[in-house]
Design goal:
membrane; Glycine zipper domain-containing protein; transmembrane; signal; transmembrane helix
C-alpha cells in the first residue's frame, strides 16, 4: 500500500518547529513574516500539505515550510508599514515568497488553491464550488486536486458517507490510489493535517456545526 497515514502528533511537532523558527527570525525578514501571519500563511501551509500528500513529497515538511513563506500573503495585503522597512529589501522578500506560493498554484491550480483557503476558514460552500471548477479543468492535476478537495470538504463537515461515495472516482483518476483502503487512509491523512494546521494558526480545529 502506497498511501501513508501521517500521525497528527508528527504534524504538530513539525509545524511547531516551523513556527518557532519563524518567531526566531531576526531583522526585517522576521518582521515581515511575523506581521504577515494570517489566512495567507495558513492557505500556503494547507496548500503545501495537500499538494505533497496527493502528488508526492513530505506533507509535514511542505506544511512547515509553507508556514514560513505563506506569511508573505498577509504582508502583501498591507500589514507592513512602508515607513519602517527598506523598500528594496521588502520587495525582494515578498517576491521570493510569492514565487514559492505560485509553485503550489501551478501544481494544483487557482481553483483548488482558493478552495483550500476557503476550507481553512470553514467556508465549505466556497470550497466545494472551487472544487467543482477545478474538476472541470483540462489539466489532470488540477482536476485531481479538485476531486480530493471535494472529498476533504465533505469529510470536514462530518459527511463521511458522501466523501466515501467519491472513492470510485478517486481510484479511477488518482494513480497513487489503488483501492478503497488506500483512499480512506489518504482522506484521513488530509483531514488530520487540515485540523492540525488550523490549530497551529489559532483557528478551531473542528468547524462549528
Amino acid at each position: 500500500m502506497r498511501s501513508v497515514l501521517v500521525r497528527p502528533v508528527v504534524i504538530v511537532t513539525a509545524l511547531g518547529l516551523s513556527v518557532a523558527t519563524l518567531a526566531g527570525c531576526t531583522g526585517k525578514t522576521g518582521e515581515y513574516a511575523g506581521q504577515g501571519a494570517g489566512i495567507g500563511a495558513i492557505s500556503g501551509a494547507i496548500g503545501g500539505f495537500v499538494t505533497a500528500a496527493i502528488f508526492g513529497g513530505n506533507p509535514v515538511e511542505a506544511a512547515a515550510k509553507s508556514a514560513v513563506y505563506g506569511g508573505a500573503a498577509g504582508a502583501t495585503a498591507g500589514a507592513i508599514s512602508g515607513a519602517s522597512a527598506d523598500t528594496a529589501e521588502r520587495d525582494a522578500y515578498e517576491a521570493a515568497q510569492k514565487e514559492k506560493r505560485d509553485r503550489i498554484r501551478a501544481k494544483i491550480g487557482d481553483d483548488a488553491f482558493n478552495g483550500l483557503a476557503a476550507l481553512a476558514k470553514c467556508d465549505h460552500a466556497s470550497a466545494r464550488a472551487n472544487a467543482d471548477l477545478a474538476q472541470k479543468s483540462s489539466n489532470a492535476d488540477f482536476a485531481l486536486a479538485g476531486l480530493w478537495l471535494e472529498a476533504l470538504a465533505y469529510s470536514d463537515q462530518g459527511q463521511e458517507s458522501s466523501a466515501r461515495a467519491m472513492y470510485g472516482d478517486i481510484i479511477a483518476r488518482d494513480p497513487k490510489i489503488s483501492d478503497e483502503t488506500a483512499a480512506e487512509l489518504r482522506r484521513r491523512e488530509l483531514a488530520d493535517g487540515l485540523s492540525e494546521i488550523r490549530g497551529e494558526y489559532d483557528l478551531p480545529k473542528v468547524c462549528p456545526a
